């Protein structure tokens, strides 16, 4: 059975989708961009480092609502507006995802919602 996740403190989705879903032991966190807590139609201030930290924190909150932590994450997908930002993303990412790190795909895209620099989704197993 599938259930929607609606985490407190995480801005509501911008479209017709859930923040995340659970299906059995799997937890799917929808792609997160670095939206502001005050206005979810605005990005936070800062560059790729700040946006990377924000999307990880949003994912953490959604995972927590489903009883998971980042250590339960089995796979992440990162979408970057500029692949040259990957070294900076990796610096932040390794602070949150410790070994054994989850599997990961990184893709450069032509654009992200609201002009975001990064979007990240993940799959966890509880």
UniProtKB/TrEMBL annotation:
Pfam families: Ribonuc_L-PSP. SUPFAM superfamilies: YjgF-like. One of its GO terms (cellular component) is cytosol. GO terms for molecular function: deaminase activity. NCBIfam families: Rid family detoxifying hydrolase (TIGR00004). PANTHER family: 2-IMINOBUTANOATE/2-IMINOPROPANOATE DEAMINASE RIDA (PTHR11803), 2-IMINOBUTANOATE_2-IMINOPROPANOATE DEAMINASE (PTHR11803:SF39). Belongs to the RutC family. This is RidA family protein.
């Amino acid at each position: 059975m599938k259930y929607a996740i609606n985490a407190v403190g995480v801005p509501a989705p911008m479209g017709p989708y859930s923040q995340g879903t659970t299906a059995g032991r799997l937890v799917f966190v929808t792609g997160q961009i670095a939206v502001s807590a005050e206005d979810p139609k605005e990005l936070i201030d800062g560059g790729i480092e700040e946006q990377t930290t924000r999307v990880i924190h949003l994912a953490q909150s959604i995972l927590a609502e489903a009883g998971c932590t980042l250590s339960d994450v089995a796979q992440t997908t990162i979408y970057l507006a500029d692949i040259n930002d990957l070294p900076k993303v990796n610096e932040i990412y390794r602070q949150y995802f410790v070994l054994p790190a989850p599997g990961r795909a990184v893709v450069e895209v032509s654009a992200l919602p609201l002009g975001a620099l990064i979007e990240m989704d993940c799959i966890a197993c509880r």
